[in-house]
């Protein structure tokens, strides 16, 4: 999905070459999110000259383009603003004119990069066209750049010079939709405004000096008195302002407390603005996450936060936090792809999900994030689990154990369908949001919908600091570490475990369930080691792909009970990464239609691990073999499924507690999808048409 990166240096000398390299490196760190074009904007040799360099394709193509230009790399800037963008096409093809940055006019008076969607862009475009503006792209984003110029010019004509943040506020007033936005302007050299609504944006700060305080005040200014300067006599009188010129310092009255130096002089500082901490942590761990409607205005080495709109009860400061994430956590290590690395990380990531939360000796679970909310949740009348894609499958996989342990009715919802139906939600509902990124637009909209209706909202989220993690009342971080491969793997197993631990916590006061709880906690203890055992089957799985699956066009996966989710998740992994059509089918539904597909050619994978439904799955396999089907069977050692000698292959996975078996059964499918994709020459970490974090509806 689209990514934003901005770099500001103040009293820290940087050559143009260093600035460009910084911007390109920032973009590289955003690559994993998926994109189809890139671009940057920097200052030219004259102070009011702005350059835009952009291209469809990868960051490497942009670098080639930059290298081929005769840019003077040695020019040194004491203060400079650079912005950079990766675009994932929504409005308009991935072609040059649609790449960001977009400009207000050929002189690039205002240059913007934007994530999200401007829903009223058609109306705005009509208005701006009527004012004589000429559009160069099919994007919704371009109208933002044009709007900046229009609002700026209109004010100037009326004799009003606006502070950059005040101008931004006026522009945002006209915009509908969602945005993460950075703007630079030749009218405000060395300054940048960044703002967000429904799309993430954070600011990293790097300085040798110690910050005075670890927060930034939100400046609630009255626009009629502050941030607006008139240089037209009549307007000055009307507004009661002294005649001043635009550059005069009394435009800015406040100083940001965090950036006050002991000697009162401005301090050398660099700022990194980004939609993703992954592109900031190599520079600094000190970051501030913006809230919706915040405007971050950086000038003279200070960060100021203003509000696009003032709403009641909001916090008056923004914390500067220290990010825990390490850069090496987001590198590939010895693996060829992030997806492979993440599959093999699962013994560790599942362990990390449980670490410090499961007391195996006393069979107890302590989830710090929901501990104090448990009594409220226990009293709720139902739990609604809401998610998309793989995260939805983790809900499906654990719904049954949730109901068994908590005796609270649980429904599961795909976020988009939940919103389409405008499903009724009540104050005594608990809505559980499951998401790796914590930024998926459908899930966030569903979260807002539930918040508006007064329900208790709980997050099961991987990304700390993400919108969902911050907007839910409480929740559990799954602690799987950053997931970079577009196909979700380790997040699935960690979500699964977090949800099981959640169900265990909710039932901790039920004596009748204590034996079952003990059994599950004991089972969880062995999961990391058992995953390791399944991972050691990689060679067998690889050769199974080579001998039987690489050339197939279609694949069926059969599962029942707990393994229905495994079948759906396995099918999703295979289709998204290897582009092979695959379908997960509830084994009980086989005879209601799907059986018509079965012949001696269609490969079928059947999950026949030992649980109470085992005899029924065996019977489904018999229905398949009776029609010349040759299934690949995933079962437990000692619980062979003979399939009349017709099985194409059998994969043995270790036995665990029924409700945890899906954690082990999904691993062969993750490996299978990976090798099928590699064998077919697919760019595993960037499958076509997909993005890591789907921040559009
Ligand atoms: C927390 C700390 C962890 C520390 C541990 C020690 C964080 C992120 N975690 O972990 O570093 O080692 O205490 O006791 O600081 N939350 C939501 N929505 C979500 C996810 C989480 O509101 O979707 C909230 C939780 O309610 C909680 C906070 O975020 O208030 C941290 O959650 P979590 O990381 O799960 O808590 P701990 O495991 O206690
Ligand atoms: C599949 C995959 C997607 C995501 C879905 C939700 O491998 O990654 O199906 O699971 O887009 O994303 P999150 O979990 O970030 O809300």
TrEMBL record:
<dbReference type="InterPro" id="IPR035490">
    <property type="entry name" value="GlmS/FrlB_SIS"/>
</dbReference>
<dbReference type="GO" id="GO:0006002">
    <property type="term" value="P:fructose 6-phosphate metabolic process"/>
</dbReference>
<comment type="pathway">
    <text>Nucleotide-sugar biosynthesis; UDP-N-acetyl-alpha-D-glucosamine biosynthesis; alpha-D-glucosamine 6-phosphate from D-fructose 6-phosphate: step 1/1.</text>
</comment>
<dbReference type="Pfam" id="PF01380">
    <property type="entry name" value="SIS"/>
</dbReference>
<dbReference type="GO" id="GO:0004360">
    <property type="term" value="F:glutamine-fructose-6-phosphate transaminase (isomerizing) activity"/>
</dbReference>
<feature type="domain" description="SIS">
    <location>
        <begin position="545"/>
        <end position="687"/>
    </location>
</feature>
<dbReference type="InterPro" id="IPR017932">
    <property type="entry name" value="GATase_2_dom"/>
</dbReference>
<dbReference type="GO" id="GO:0097367">
    <property type="term" value="F:carbohydrate derivative binding"/>
</dbReference>
<dbReference type="GO" id="GO:0006031">
    <property type="term" value="P:chitin biosynthetic process"/>
</dbReference>
<dbReference type="InterPro" id="IPR029055">
    <property type="entry name" value="Ntn_hydrolases_N"/>
</dbReference>
<keyword id="KW-0315">Glutamine amidotransferase</keyword>
<dbReference type="Pfam" id="PF13522">
    <property type="entry name" value="GATase_6"/>
</dbReference>
<keyword id="KW-0032">Aminotransferase</keyword>
<dbReference type="GO" id="GO:0006487">
    <property type="term" value="P:protein N-linked glycosylation"/>
</dbReference>
<dbReference type="GO" id="GO:0006048">
    <property type="term" value="P:UDP-N-acetylglucosamine biosynthetic process"/>
</dbReference>
<comment type="function">
    <text>Involved in amino sugar synthesis (formation of chitin, supplies the amino sugars of asparagine-linked oligosaccharides of glycoproteins).</text>
</comment>
<dbReference type="InterPro" id="IPR046348">
    <property type="entry name" value="SIS_dom_sf"/>
</dbReference>
<feature type="domain" description="Glutamine amidotransferase type-2">
    <location>
        <begin position="2"/>
        <end position="301"/>
    </location>
</feature>
<protein>
    <recommendedName>
        <fullName>glutamine--fructose-6-phosphate transaminase (isomerizing)</fullName>
        <ecNumber>2.6.1.16</ecNumber>
    </recommendedName>
</protein>
<dbReference type="InterPro" id="IPR001347">
    <property type="entry name" value="SIS_dom"/>
</dbReference>
<dbReference type="InterPro" id="IPR035466">
    <property type="entry name" value="GlmS/AgaS_SIS"/>
</dbReference>
<feature type="domain" description="SIS">
    <location>
        <begin position="373"/>
        <end position="512"/>
    </location>
</feature>
<keyword id="KW-0677">Repeat</keyword>
<keyword id="KW-0808">Transferase</keyword>
<dbReference type="InterPro" id="IPR047084">
    <property type="entry name" value="GFAT_N"/>
</dbReference>
